[in-house]
Amino acid sequence: MNKKERIKAFSDGDSEEEQINKSRCTKKSFTSSEVLSIKSGEKPYRLFTVHNGKKDSSGDGSTNLLPQNLKHDKEFILDAISQHATNLQHVSPDLKKDHEFILQAVQRNGFALENCKQNKQIVYEVIKQCHHTIAYLSNKLRNDLEFLLSAVKQNEQILMYLSDHLKSDRDFMLNVVKRNDIALKYATMDLKKDKQVVIEAVCQNASSFQYVSPDLKSNKDFILECVSINVCTLGYVSYSLRVNKEFMLHVIENYNGYAAHYASY
Q1: Cβ distance 15 to 47 under 8 Å?
Q2: Residue 41 contacts by C-beta under 8 Å, 6 or more apart in sequence?
Q3: Which of 2, 117, 95 is nearest to 47 (CA)?
Q4: How far apart are CA 212 and CA 195, in angstroms?
Q5: Which secondary-structure segment (H or E) carries 141?
Q6: By the 8 A CB rule, do 133 and 117 touch?
Q7: Residue limits of the DUF4116 domain (predicted)?
Q8: Which of 138, 135, 133 lies closest to 118 in space, CA to CA?
Q9: Distance (Å, whole) CA 7 – CA 36
Q10: Residue 80: which of 89, 135, 24 has the closest Cα?
Q11: Buried-state track 9-47, b at ≥16 Cβ within 10 A, e below 16
Q12: pLDDT tens digit sequence for 80-120
């Protein structure tokens, strides 16, 4: 296999493993000239090759192609991960435990997050700082209820990436609104009409009332129930109610004198 064929074998594409196997590549590491070519960004590359399903010391049928002097070169490896997220699988154990390195890797290539999903603590840390990275997780992990409930605690903005199925799951969203004060914003309209879901949300933060369905926003009895739980809800009811002297006096006399602060009459 000549140099041109080797470079082609390591070029970008879904059939890279097949190209390598078909060529019976016996390459053990990159040459100095190839390292320079890789660093220049001339070709996308991977740090390993696959051998017809045969397992070796790596345990997964792959061989690390990095020469010893590059195995701890973080910048070089990060460049490799930016080209192929799967390169993260083959970094040294020390780097896999390095939270800062993992965060940098995911920032370079969001799909790298999928390759460290076994270490949920690292995943949580990454999501905490880069909420959009949850979009790169597999569907399986993005529908893992236990994982998502914990992740919401790390970064509330991941709620925008929930599947439609979860946004309509009443039990799941009930748990979420108890943990996050803006979760109701991302619920389906059916759940925004659900009095129990709304009340749980208002208990956490009165601002959640702005996301309830139009029907509930015009339901005076329900509004009074919410105000009795969190008087600050009045800050999010319609202006027409806040200028309604009869309604506001009723609230002030029967629920909370502080309600006068929200009166507009």
Answers
A1: no
A2: 79
A3: 95
A4: 9
A5: helix 139-142
A6: no
A7: 73-115, 119-167, 169-217, 219-264
A8: 138
A9: 13
A10: 89
A11: bbeeeeebbeebbeeebebeebeeebbebbeeeeeebbb
A12: 888 888 888 878 888 888 888 988 888 888 888 777 766 77
In this structure, what token pair is assigned to residue 196? Answer: 């129990």
How far is it, in rounded angstroms, from Cα 199 to Cα 202?
5
Indicate the helix (H) or strand (E) that contains 151: helix 145-154
Rounded Cα gap, residues 48 and 66, in angstroms: 8
245, burial (CB in 10 Å: exposed 0-12, middle 13-18, buried 19+): exposed
Q: What percent of the chain has a predicted confidence (pLDDT) above 90?
A: 22
| Phi-psi region at 59: left, alpha or beta (left = phi > 0; alpha = psi -120 to 50) | left
Phi, psi (degrees; rounded to nearest 5) at 71: -65, -20
pLDDT (tens digit per residue) in 13-65: 333 433 433 333 334 455 555 555 555 555 555 665 444 444 334 434 444 66
Split at pLDDT 50, 70, 90, the class of 233 is: very high
Q: 43: alpha, beta or left, given left = phi > 0 and alpha = psi -120 to 50?
A: beta
Domain ranges of the chain: 1-71, 91-161, 167-265
- Rounded distance between C-alpha atoms, residue 117 and residue 249, angstroms: 55
Length reported for the chain: 265
